[in-house]
Amino acid sequence: MSHGKTKGWLSDRSGVSLVELIVTMTILAILASVIMPMMQMTAVRTREIELHRNLRIIRTAIDDFQKSYKKAELEGKIPKSLDKSGCPETLQQLVDGYDFGGLYPTKKKFLRRIPPDPMNPPQPGKEPEWGMRSYADKPDSTTWGGEDVYDVYSKSEGTAIDGTKYNEW
């Protein structure tokens, strides 16, 4: 038995050939070209899901505020007014709370914080910005009348995966 030789497919040379390296790099490049667009699409889809969720959270809080306001009116805690819609005056009022004329023992809060718009993220240290419509505004208005907050929408001009505009959701 000789000591300088190896058995089987192993040889005295070690390492990979240039052809093996090129084939491996080509396979990796093909895989990366397939995976990258899928990852980008997944990131966009995740932000779209977050936008839907945040819109639902804010809109539900506005609806709950309005229900409490109407209940306070019915129970005589707040005088009825034709000028008031029962919607919060600002989004911040959903966070700060409202007493509804003593309907509840303390100010009732509807949000812990205003959720950010993932398609129009706020600058660091700034409050989230949403497009708002008041009760008196037209449904497709892009300017807020300022009387109250009846609805919110994204300020993003971008287009969703399904072809709709984010600011129309």
From TrEMBL:
It comes from the Bacteria. The chain crosses the membrane at residues 15-35. The keyword rRNA-binding does not apply. InterPro entries: N_methyl_site (IPR012902), Pilin-like (IPR045584). Keywords: Membrane, Transmembrane, Transmembrane helix. PROSITE patterns: PROKAR_NTER_METHYL. Pfam families: N_methyl. Residues 116-125 have a biased composition (Pro residues). Residues 126-140 have a biased composition (Basic and acidic residues). Residues 111-147 are annotated as: Disordered. This is Type II secretion system protein. It comes from Oryzomonas sagensis.
